[in-house]
Amino acid sequence: MNLTVQVLLKRYRCGDVRALAQLITLCENGANHFTEDFVEEKEHHVVGITGSPGVGKSSIIDELALRYVDRGERVAVVAIDPSSPFTHGAFLGDRVRMRKLSTKGVVIRSMASRGNGGGLAPAITSVLKLLSGFGFSKIFLETVGIGQAEVDVANVADTVILVLSPGIGDEIQLFKTGVMEIADIYVVNKADLEESKKLRTLVEQTVNQGKTEGWKRRIVGTSCVEWCGFEELEEAINEHLQYLKESGELLARRTRRRKFALISRFLRYVRETVEKVAVEDLTLEGLKKAICDDIIFGRENKKDENIYQGGR
Ligand SMILES: Nc1nc2c(ncn2[C@@H]2O[C@H](COP(=O)(O)OP(=O)(O)OP(=O)(O)O)[C@@H](O)[C@H]2O)c(=O)[nH]1
Ligand SMILES: [Mg+2]
Question: pLDDT tens string for the chain (312 positions)?
């Protein structure tokens, strides 16, 4: 292992937040091998929060994060491709509320999805491992629910929350294939707005249709203006975690996350290899040979070192 990674890991294990930030950046840049062998996951709960732009995901996370900190949990927030307000690619946002979170030890990190077909950042599973290994017990993952990201969040989160709000076409969103299956908890936000009631009725009619066993999906109404519904939401999140543990589903979801990590890594590797051989030999045979050469010469394993020398 590269010496710099070794030093960073040592500092990370001593609880140095700056080392954690640097290791996350390494993962984002593609050098995430070390997380497999040298980072140990601790007990944690990943809560994925998805939904259309502007429904109130960040506002809801703000409130939830504070609540869990008050319960004695260590909280981290990861936002994928946000437009607001966790936009600075660093740990700290600049809003007053964000500053309040940071003084309570909440770590906030933005990540770009980097052309991953609109999906989650390829490094997300390594980043989750780093955060849990650092001691964060509650990790909120905000993704804009468009296309692939919506499906991906279900692959990495233990609990999936879909936030809906009136007036932005979410009534139509509801009937998109799969939307009503991905979430464990449905939040109808902006309960202070009159139209929210209609949307809530529609969600109640659609969710849990024909479902008789397993987790009974919860529907919660919240308002980040009147600050209501959060007790119920917190309760639903806690109940779902309890359900995951008791039913054995938590293990199944962690296995799904590891599979997702493996597939993402493999796809990235194939894409990089295809890009490389495309110049030399544009045939399937050429690709197979390139992959074999790669494995034999161990390019994959040298990635960490390459990154430090400015290459990939
Ligand atoms: N009336 C009302 N407005 C809200 C509520 N929650 C959030 N908003 C407003 O909705 C806007 C978007 O809120 P955000 O929390 O940034 O929403 P988001 O889903 O994180 O948005 P993106 O990250 O851009 O996808 C902001 O102007 C909020 O003040 C609510 O409960 N009621
Ligand atoms: Mg947001």
Answer: 677 899 999 999 999 999 999 999 988 887 878 888 889 999 999 999 998 888 999 899 999 999 999 999 999 999 886 544 444 333 434 344 566 787 888 998 888 776 555 567 778 999 999 999 999 999 999 987 766 666 788 899 999 999 999 987 666 666 666 666 789 999 999 999 999 999 999 888 888 776 778 899 999 999 999 999 999 999 999 999 999 999 999 999 999 999 998 888 888 788 877 877 766 777 888 888 888 887 777 655 555 445 444 433
Report yes or no on whether pTM surpasses 0.85.
Answer: yes
Residue 242, both tokens: 């309890």
Question: Is 106 in the same domain as 211?
Answer: yes
Let me know if residue 58 belongs to a domain: yes
229 lines ligand 1 (CB under 6 A): no
How many domains would you assign to the chain? Answer: 2
**Same domain assignment for residues 293 and 154:** no
The answer on 288 and 186 residing in a single domain is no
Measured CA to CA, the distance from residue 203 to residue 190 in angstroms comes to 14
CA-144 nearest atom, ligand 1: 25
Atom of ligand 1 nearest to the CA of 61: 15
Domain range for 286: 265-308
Does residue 110 fall inside a structural domain?
yes
For a ligand 1 pocket test, name from 78, 83, 84 the mutation site with the most ligand atoms within 8 angstroms of its C-beta: 84
Neighbours of 142 (CB within 10 A): 26
Both 235 and 304 in one domain: the answer is no
Q: Among 157, 156, 106, which residue's Cα sits nearest to residue 135?
A: 106
Q: State if residue 188 touches ligand 1 by the CB under 6 angstroms criterion.
A: no
- DSSP string for 42-106: -S-EEEEEEESTTSSHHHHHHHHHHHHHHTT--EEEEEES-SSSS-SSSS--SSHHHHHHHHTT-
User: Residue 72 falls within a domain, yes or no?
Assistant: yes
- Ligand 1: which atom is nearest the Cα of residue 83? 24
User: Do 55 and 108 lie in a common domain?
Assistant: yes
Q: Is 83 in the pocket of ligand 1 (CB under 6 A)?
A: yes
